[in-house]
Amino acid sequence: MAQITTGTWNLDPAHSDVDFVVRHAGISKVRGTFAAVEGTLVVAEDFNASSVEVTVDVASINTKNEGRDQHLRSGDFFDVEQFPTMTFRSTEVRGAAEEFTLVGELTLHGVTRTVELEAELGGQDVDPFGTTRVGFEAKGEISRKDFGLTWNAATEAGGVLVSDKVKLEIGAAFVLPEADAQA
After folding, report:
1. Are 173 and 26 contacting, i.e. CB atoms less than 8 angstroms apart?
2. If you ran DSSP here, which 8-state letter would residue 165 be given?
């Protein structure tokens, strides 16, 4: 079993990604990321008692198309003026550190729903600058409609422009504050 230093870790946004994939017009996929993210990870002696909290600045969305990003920030989608952040707070960890299910409450667009993410440990190490780091990958899927994100448009072939299902792909790196790096 992998050993992770217990304590409170800070998310390293420069080495973390909160990405999503959604089917567009039924024929291709659009990928996007949120550039501004912060959070903490608390690793307990019993890994299943560990927890994570993450906050995402929804206005930091980037799909490589500024016009689309502006539309996603608007009231048709995220409505960032009224709902500027998306949060995830874990409520349960099932499994061992190597591979586990992370259950939590995702709040998006003013709606909170329970989601499950399948996660795995990338590892823990000390970088050349003396910083203790740990990394995880997590994947899951949500329904846009579950969060009140219902805007859509019909395509000529009878499909819709934006799929309901959204795949989440998260790569998270956390750093242990120097005062806590005693393991």
Report:
1. no
2. E
Residue at token pair 């190490």: 125
Burial class, 28, CB count within 10 angstroms (exposed 0-12 / middle 13-18 / buried 19+):
exposed
CB distance 154 to 170 below 8 Å: no
What are the structural domains, with CATH classification, of the chain?
A: 10-180 (2.40.128.110)
Region 120-138: what's the mean pLDDT? Answer: 93
pTM across the whole model: 0.88
The overall longest dimension of the chain from CA atoms, in Å, is: 61
pLDDT of residue 181 exceeding 60, the answer is no
**3-state DSSP call for residue 72?**
helix
- Residues 6 or more apart from 182 whose CB is under 8 A from it? none
Q: Which residues contact 6 (CB under 8 A, 6 or more apart)?
A: 43, 44, 45, 183
Q: Are 144 and 150 in contact (CB under 8 A)?
A: yes
